[in-house]
Amino acid sequence: MPDNPSSRLPSPRIDNAPLGILMMLVAVALFSVLNVLVKAAAADYPLNQVTFFRNAFALVPVWATVMVQGGLRSLHSRRPFGHLWRSCIGLLSMTLMFWSFHLLPLADAVALNFAAPLFLTALSVPLLGEKVGIHRWSAVAVGFVGVLVIVRPSADMLQLGAVVALSAALAQSFAMIAIRQLTRTETANTIVFYFTLITTGLSALTLPFGWRTPDLQGLAILVGTGLVGGVAQLFMTRAYTLAPAAVIAPFNYASIVWAALFGWLLWHDVPTWNVIAGAAIVVASGCYILHRETVRRRVAAAEMPAAADD
Question: How many angstroms separate the CA atoms of 188 and 77, rounded?
C-alpha cells in the first residue's frame, strides 16, 4: 500500500510569540558579544579570515546541538536549494555590512542597517502571506525612529556607503524571509547547520586572498567569534520558527541597548541623552508589540472552545 501523502506533511506550526521574542532577545545579546569579538579580531586580521573563523567554529555548537537533538537523521532536508539560497543571501548580508563599516562612520552604518525590519515587514506580506496590521507597522516605525534618535546619523549619508548599508539591510531581510519559508518543512537545527556548513565552505574559498597566522590570543578571539556566533544563530533561527517575521524582527533594536552597555563597560563611553531617549523609544515599541501579540493569543484561545461547541 502506498504511503498516504498527507502523513508526510509537516504538522501545523503553532506560533508562540512571547517565547519567540525571548529567544530573539537572547540571540541579540549573544550577537552583541560577537560584535565585540569581531571588532577586536578585525583590528589585527583580514576581514575574510575573521569571517571564515566566525562561520567555521560556529559548527561546533551547531553540530553538538544536532547530535543531542536528533542526530544525523534530523539533517534530512526536503529543500536543499532553499538552504543554499538562505546561506548565500546571509553571507552576502554579512559581507555588505562589514564593507559598510569601512565606508561609513559606524553609527551611520548601524542606523541604516536597522532599516531591515522595515524591509522585512513589507516583504513578509507578499512573500510569506503574513498579515501586518496598522499597530505592528506603527510599532516598527516608532522603533526605527528611536534608533535614529540614538545614533543621530549625519546628513551626508547619501553616498556609496549608504547604498551598501541599505543593501545589507535588504539582504538581511531576504535572509530572514528565507528562514521563515524553510521552517515550513525544515527544523531550526537543520536550517542553522546547513547555513553554517555552506557559509564555511564559501568563506574558505577567500582565504588564499588574505591570511595572517594568529598568535594564541588572536586565535582565542577568532575561535570565540565562531562559538558565540553559532549559539546566537541557533537562538535566532529558533525565534523565527516560533512567531511571524514581522513580530520577531523589531527586537533587533535591543542591540542598541547592548551596544551602549558594552561601550560604557569596555570603552568608558557614557550614554548621552539621545542614547537614553532613543533606547526608551525602542524598548517601548518592542513592549507594545509583545502586548499586542499576548492579547491576540488570549483572544484566539478564548474563541477556540467557543468554536468547538458550535
Answer: 11
Within a domain: 181:
yes
Angle between helices 80-103 and 47-56 (to 10 degrees): 140
Q: What is the rounded distance in angstroms from the CA atom of residue 168 to the CA atom of residue 91?
A: 10
Is the CB of residue 209 less than 8 Å from the CB of residue 48?
Answer: yes
Residue 148: give the domain boundaries: 15-309
Closest of 190, 224, 235 to residue 45, by C-alpha:
224
> 240 CB contacts (<8 Å, ≥6 apart)?
20, 176, 179, 180, 183, 248
Listing DSSP states for 10-39 in one string gives PPPP---HHHHHHHHHHHHHHHHHHHHHHH
Residue 269 has a pLDDT of 65
Tens digits of residue pLDDT in 27-51:
999 988 888 888 788 878 888 898 8
Give the model confidence (pLDDT) of 54-112 as tens digits.
999 999 999 998 898 888 888 888 888 999 999 999 999 988 887 777 677 666 677 77
User: For residue 183, is pLDDT > 70?
Assistant: yes
Q: Is residue 5 part of a domain?
A: no
24 contacts 75 by C-beta, under 8 angstroms: no
Determine, yes or no, domain membership for 249. yes
For the chain, the domain total comes to: 1
Q: Could you tell me which residue, 9 or 41, shows the higher pLDDT? A: 41
Angle in degrees, CA 132, 194, 255, rounded to 5: 50
Q: Cell triple for residue 176?
A: 530572514
CA distance 251 to 253: 5
